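Record type: monomer structure entry
Structure origin: computed from sequence
Chain ID: A
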Amino acid sequence: MTRKTGRDQPTPPQGREKEGGWVVLGLLLGLALLLGGGYAAAYVLSGDKVPRGASVAGVAIGGRTPEAAAQVLAEGLAERSSRPIDVTVGGTSVSVTPAQAGLAVDYAASVAAAGGEQSWDPQRLWDYYTGGDDLDPVLTVDEDRLDAAVQSLAAGIGRPATDASLRFEGARIVTTKARTGRALDLDAARTALQAAYLSDEPRVDLPLSAQAPDVDDADLQEALDDFANPALSAPVTLVFGDSRVRLQPRDYADALGMEAQDGELVPVLDEKALEKLVDGAVSDNGAPVDASVALVDGKPRVVPAKPGVAYDPADVSDAFLTLVTRPDGKREMTVKASVAEPDFTTKDARALKVRERVSTFTTYYPYAEYRNTNIGRAAELVDGTLLKPGETFSLNDTVGERTRENGFTEGFIISDGIFKEDLGGGVSQMATTTFNAMFFAGLEDVEHKPHSFYIDRYPVGREATVAWGAVDLRFRNDTPYGVLVHAQVTPSTPSSQGVVTVSMYSTKVWDITTSTSDRYDLTEPATRVLRTPDCYPNTGYGGFDVDVTRYFRKAGESALDHDEVFHTTYTPSDTVICKPPRG
């Protein structure tokens, strides 16, 4: 009997193992097909519908397509979406409609947020069949309208915060304390309106909150300590070459200020006002100004010369703002500038020795508005004329052409022995008054022409007429001193005469007296009949010759030094009869 070992055991055939593997594979494929078909069926059934349990603001929209869900949501929120919001702010109640606040529901976006979309994502399919929450709607917000609504709620409510402030009045500092305000919190109001929209009871209570000023009292004190008090503590001196401009606090305070910037008070400077102050101490437009002499309280005074200073205003402003915060004793700085000295210095003006009134003369004229205008304008132009030794005065050069642009109007003049109307009529009254002031000051007569016929309101033989471009009044200052001419007019009225006075100020050289001869070589007037449109009737009177003598005695002495004779021939003033022009 034979015994077999284990290695001699029989093995299964290989063909049967292969058949079993194919069976398993088939089972797995079948199961996969079954599951895939079910997943596909679940996908097809869910489509893009909203999860079954979804709702928005309490409106159920689950299991519907996005379009249908949006329609249902719009219908469900129709009343709430248009209901006004009751707002109480600062004790005042108002209603704000959603349209006024720019609030509305975006229905499509709200449905999409709830899950209304088609997807192979397993989580999406799971949510459709098992999920769905109550969500807040998606809002559209018109920011401009919402801002406008909030600003309207804030208008007139509470009180604004007041910044601390500081200003200069003369040499005095005036301050205003800060004050906390109460105002609506605009950001909180925006949030509250959006939150109340669509709520069951759309009501908002908006309290006022404290509003701090940008510039508080601590900022004010800092401004006082660092700038305002030092600025007015002492004068400031700007040095231009050899010229020093000293500015007192009372002079420059109005050019200073402080304004709020980024929560603090910062200095500001009116550069034009400062430039005007500096120019007033030196000269305008960088040109030197000669010294002169003017009447001050009725007495001649030297007006000092001013050097010409050309500078950059920005350099002056920078230097000034630096100096006003420095302590006393260190408030001086040199400013870059070009300096030009005047031709006629203060010393030159004093050397003229214009010290006293040496002559004065007054004439009168009857009421006429054209005389008030023309004589007044001429006096304005003559007044203040300063004649240096050797200089010649010309009334035409001083007064200028008598035009409307120069301030003159039409008035009566004498032309060809009769009265005519022309611009500047009446200026001869100024010529006559000035001539007599010159006469008694003892100045040299260069040119004067009496009127063609005598006018009885003028001193006989001592009067003068002028005509632009033809007849002038000229005299020369032949003394070693300056002569200041002062002219003034009191206008006439229907009940009073006008008064013209011309005075001359200098150092007295001559005592002047005068005599007038009898009238001689008398002539009779003629009679004229005129048919011109500009005819003015006149009752004539005769002409004559006359001599006026001027006697010169040195000031304070009785002995006659010399004399001078003025001879005048007056023609008759013709009678004028006006008749209508011939047709």
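Annotation 1: DSSP finds 16 helices and 36 strands in the chain.
Annotation 2: Residues 36-158+186-209 form one domain.
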